[in-house]
């Protein structure tokens, strides 16, 4: 029995794990499918789902402008509309980026699968790769939970308010033209549209952020696998009877793998640089408005949405920090190669790798700041400063 279990475990370890990476993309595939975008294919396609998504976002803009016109000078309720506009604009940027640059997304997924399969060729890397996939799946599932919880809380809390007060309280401050929300029929129509808005927002944010995580997080597994390759290479160098041909093949493989990782990072950093500026800026602005409306105006939907926006901002900046850390790790790992045991021609390859590692690409917020936890703290401090100023003005 014990030997059979060992055999089964060895058989599982011997199997390639590339299919597991493909399966980890399921959440990204499902959420992007619902908004009508497929970043896993090269061709841009206008589907009925994409047209519906675009029309819904356009309707939200129109209805928000109509609501602002109806409200007039009521600044508190106008602020609620402004919040919806900010969140909708953030979603518009996400879906527009996904549609206009779907081919770039496709290239990122093709590249990451190619690197994964290259590392997966060595059975000793598979436990590392599988661990990375498990972390990726866990992170994507946590995103689904947080975003869905945030959207569901809006409905649950507002439903509780309606039941307790016996008043027709709207989920969001967005009116529909020619629909009187004070009547029973108008209230049902308006509430149904608000529920559609919330569901679409939750799925849209998940679609964009799950794709971002699915393309960035695998770098962690690649850098850890590269360390394993280097450790195996050093072990070969320390053998008494060295196989020079095998050592040359190992070194060339390490050079190739490192080059693939660096090129992939450059590709991802260049792609996300400008979009990160829009994302982080809108996240910071939305967070400021949400906290102000939640704490000062006691607006329940703002309290619920704060959870999702803060989680999203933390996610982006923490992933940026992880990539910076892993770039530093690669530099240290390459420096740890026993280059003094190599002939001169092979030493130059190590020097070349070390030079490239010292110029590792990190995620940036436009051209302004690195996307890491230092920037994250600065954003929170800035939000706090403006929040304190707004509280002072209101009171």
Automatic annotation (TrEMBL):
Matching entries from Pfam families are given as: 7tm_6
Question: What stretches pass through the bilayer?
Answer: 50-69, 81-99, 144-165, 185-206, 280-299, 375-394
Q: Name one GO molecular function term.
A: odorant binding
Q: Which UniProt keywords apply?
A: Cell membrane, Coiled coil, Membrane, Olfaction, Receptor, Sensory transduction, Transducer, Transmembrane, Transmembrane helix
Subcellular location(s): the record lists:
Cell membrane
Primary place of residence?
membrane
CC annotations in GO: plasma membrane
Q: How does it sit in the membrane?
A: Multi-pass membrane protein
GO BP: signal transduction
Q: Which InterPro entries match?
A: 7tm6_olfct_rcpt
Q: Which residues form a coiled coil?
A: 223-257
Tell me which family the UniProt entry assigns to this protein: Belongs to the insect chemoreceptor superfamily. Heteromeric odorant receptor channel (TC 1.A.69) family.
Q: What is this protein called?
A: Odorant receptor
Species of origin: Aedes aegypti
């Amino acid at each position: 029995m014990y030997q059979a279990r060992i055999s089964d475990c060895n058989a599982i370890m011997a199997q390639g794990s590339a299919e597991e990476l493909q399966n980890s993309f399921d959440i990204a595939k499902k959420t992007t499918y619902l908004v009508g975008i497929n970043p896993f294919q090269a061709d841009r396609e206008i589907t009925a789902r994409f047209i519906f998504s675009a029309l819904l976002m356009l309707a939200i803009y129109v209805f928000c402008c109509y609501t602002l016109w109806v409200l007039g000078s009521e600044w508190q309720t106008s602020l609620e509309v402004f919040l919806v506009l900010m969140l909708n604009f953030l979603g518009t940027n996400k879906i527009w980026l996904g549609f206009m640059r779907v081919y770039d997304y496709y290239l990122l997924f093709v590249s990451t699968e190619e690197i994964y399969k290259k590392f997966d060729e060595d059975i000793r890397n598979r436990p590392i790769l599988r661990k990375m996939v498990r972390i990726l799946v866990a992170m994507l599932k946590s995103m689904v939970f947080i975003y869905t919880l945030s959207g569901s809380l809006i409905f649950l809390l507002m439903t509780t308010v309606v039941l307790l007060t016996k008043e027709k309280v709207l989920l969001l401050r967005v009116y529909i033209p020619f629909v009187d929300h004070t009547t029973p029929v108008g209230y049902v129509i308006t509430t149904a549209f608000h529920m559609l808005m919330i569901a679409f927002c939750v799925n849209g944010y998940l679609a964009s952020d799950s794709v971002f995580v699915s393309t960035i997080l695998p770098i962690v597994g690649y850098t850890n696998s590269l360390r394993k390759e280097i450790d195996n290479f050093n072990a070969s160098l320390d053998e008494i009877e060295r196989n020079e041909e095998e050592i040359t093949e190992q070194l060339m493989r390490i050079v190739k793998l490192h080059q693939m990782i660096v090129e992939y990072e450059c590709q991802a950093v260049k792609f996300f640089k400008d979009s990160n500026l829009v994302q982080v800026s809108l996240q910071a602005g939305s967070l400021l408005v949400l906290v102000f409306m939640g704490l000062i105006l006691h607006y329940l939907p703002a309290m619920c949405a704060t959870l999702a926006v803060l989680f999203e901002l933390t996610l982006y900046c923490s992933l940026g920090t992880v990539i910076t850390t892993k770039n530093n790790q690669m530099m240290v790992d390459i420096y740890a190669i026993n280059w003094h045991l190599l002939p001169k021609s092979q030493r130059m390859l190590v020097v070349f790798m070390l030079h490239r590692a010292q110029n590792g690409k990190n995620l940036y917020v436009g051209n302004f700041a690195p996307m890491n936890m230092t920037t994250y703290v600065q954003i929170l401090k800035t939000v706090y400063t403006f929040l304190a100023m707004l509280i002072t003005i209101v009171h």
